[in-house]
């Protein structure tokens, strides 16, 4: 179990080596440098300067390796691709934004850490379950943000097994991750969602950002449809993981948000088995799966005080209210904002993009 930090900060813990997974925010093992990891600024700045760009109402976007990305992320993504060294037991949680990212973070952490932190157990201070004292985005780091801030040393200090998340397509993951796929490398879990629900969820999310003025639902809808919404095109994000999961089912697990809603317990079992941590018969009998489901439920996450107030840093100086990550968590909410004509247009675009791939949202 983690112990309180010697400097008296009860919110930062000293983590014994090899005791993962642990929350990213808790990392302070005495060896993490205070300064940011140095970069080859000349190489990345020249590359970034040459990229196509566009301005959307929220951020300036750059087209890097076929993907529209916030400008703030791009130098860090270049460093991520160049410098990241995966461990065999790493688990990367991938998704397009607003497709179940926060829920998947919570579920994966609760599954992986269930022996150190039983999901149904009560506790206090350092013994309290991390998902009751920390926002899921403080528990599982988004690698785009980690490398954009130069916090790689903290990621390196995480004990194994490490959990981390990304919104990048599979094709933009570092070469060691892609090359190791299927040969004992780290595992990747991807969750997708009906794009109509995704765009409505994203609209409600972005309109609560610190820079949402002048941003309309029509703007976002058109950007998703023409493939310029970050980090898009959406269909390329989905298909990159679909193809990887078909080719390498032991390395890439492909989940659907709607399936998780219908039977969260079965999704938790699949996740645990894929991560190499299947539930035992004794755990099943003791209700461990149900305890994970309840801990990570939308109602429970919304009820945690840590998720009600304050903000979470996003790309650059963009901040998001903590409670903005927990809204409805349902399927079919697209009808609340989208006209039938818009739905037909979006369905038609994705149907065309997915032809011949074996995948569909139907």
TrEMBL record:
Residues 88-357 form the Sulfotransferase domain. Signal peptide: none annotated. It is an enzyme of class 2 (transferase). One of its GO terms (molecular function) is transferase activity. Its EC number is 2.8.2.-. It comes from the Eukaryota. The keyword Transferase applies. Keywords: Transferase. The keyword RNA-binding does not apply. PANTHER family: SULFOTRANSFERASE SULT. Belongs to the sulfotransferase 1 family. This is Sulfotransferase.
